[in-house]
Amino acid sequence: MKSSYFILALTLSFPAHIFADELPDLGDVSQATISPFEERQIGLRIMRNIRADPSYLDDPEINSYLNNLGYRLISRSSEASPYQSFEFFALQDSSINAFALPGGFMGFNSGLIIAAQSESELAAVMAHEIAHVTQKHLARMIAGQKFSMIKTLASLALAIIAARANPQAGHAVLVTAQASAIQSQLDFTRNHEKEADRVGLNILLDAGFDPQGMAAFFERLQKAGRFHENGAPSYLRTHPLTFERIADIQNRTHELTYRQVPDSIEFQLVRAKLQALQGKPQAAVMQFESRLREKRYVNEGVERYGYILALVRDKKYEQADKELTRLYDILQTDTTNFPLRNHPLGKPIQVEQRHILAGAMIETLAAMVKLSAGKTSEALTIYQTAINIYPQHRALIHGYATALLQNQQINVALEFINKNLRFVHDDIQLYKLQAQSYAALGKTMLQHHAQAEVYIRQGQFLAAIQQLQLALQNDNGDFYQTSSTEARLKQLEAQMADEED
């Protein structure tokens, strides 16, 4: 099944009956009878499957940006509870869509981020989705089904997600009358959407973004849907827009003082990165070359950043290395449009606190280009210097560990990986690199244990159990390592047994 089957998540479809006059009363937020813990558990179940899907973008830079933006909105809003957890992530899908899941998980398609013509527009969509969570729309709908078993709710939600992405296969996926019956009950009503608009607009204003971004984005999508009925943006199919909704947003913002909010350099870099990752590598290279040649860009530095990433994807490493020098020239001269102060190539970029992510993204790119071009010693120098400045930037951590392994510095790499895993326990890529390190050292038990940790975080519990069993079949571990593996296996088997009850 196409990887985008997760994108039409359980919270976003509108059935035809929502336009009827008889609409249910939303009720008070406190009427949600499902507990926050239960809601989170449902979300975690669904996220296991999403993380295992190829469309899930396990990119620490993109996800860091989305979470920074999301928590900027949440932290300045009076609507969000300090006890509500949120996690924002991206999916590699060119369709324009976003969705919220139970437990505060929110996904954004790469197509939507690229389609947003300003950071305020992206923030508007995010604020709308946050409002669905803060207003307990999800919890109230789930609680209304009167299902008490988290397992049942999560499995039904997954079936609905799959069916909505492929309507032709819907009956095959929704094999039970029960699942089919609750599908329409898990849809947001027209009133839910209007309430999310209203609350989302307040969140957007509190965070200092341009409130016109919400109406502008929705209005542009609606026009696109009018001219391309058969290929309307997915966001219109899952968030049907009415003139009434858009007019309501415009009325609310009409009397507000005009607020010009410049896009952050991080927003621009993330969009350029997603454009470089989208489609075939050659096509991405040609698009960047065309815009650079015709000077059709807002920020040349950002455009060249994306161009270099596309060249690396297309395996044009020498050309990427040459373009990197041009990018650093822009860094030194165009401080207005590219506000990063820097030393010559290979030296650390100096950035203000608010541009730390942007500085780290440039350093990560520089090191990656050098490593791809076979200049390992230069790459290691950049990584070592940059990690001292950005010690928590996961893309740098991943890249440095990879460079050490490629340079056959296995023990150094393993020590570095294990040190970082003591602070970050959910980093799938670090566990993959740990497994590679143990394999290179011939430590089979630890290799299988590390691979099991990868599968656990991807939600593939059976595969994880098999890896732990393989680990115990090898006798090249000490008593502590064997005991640790046995304990992990028992814990995982007990967890699976609980979920099957």
Molecular structure report:
The two termini are 29 Å apart. The chain has 24 helices and 6 strands. The longest helix has 22 residues, at 479-500. It has helices at residues 36-52, 60-75, 110-115, 119-134, 137-143, 150-165, 170-173, 177-183, 190-206, 212-227, 234-238, 243-254, 265-277, 281-293, 300-313, 317-333, 356-372, 376-389, 394-406, 410-421, 428-440, 444-457, 461-472, 479-500; strands at residues 56-57, 87-91, 98-101, 105-109, 341-342, 349-350. By secondary structure, it is mainly α. It has 3 domains: 3-14 and 29-254, no CATH class; 264-383, Serine Threonine Protein Phosphatase 5, Tetratricopeptide repeat, CATH 1.25.40; 408-501, Serine Threonine Protein Phosphatase 5, Tetratricopeptide repeat (Alpha Horseshoe). It is flat. The chain has a 4-stranded mixed beta sheet, with helices on both faces. Strands 5-6 form a two-stranded antiparallel ribbon.
Tag the structure with descriptive keywords.
501 residues; mainly alpha; Serine Threonine Protein Phosphatase 5, Tetratricopeptide repeat; 4-stranded mixed beta sheet; two-stranded antiparallel ribbon; 24 helices; 6 strands
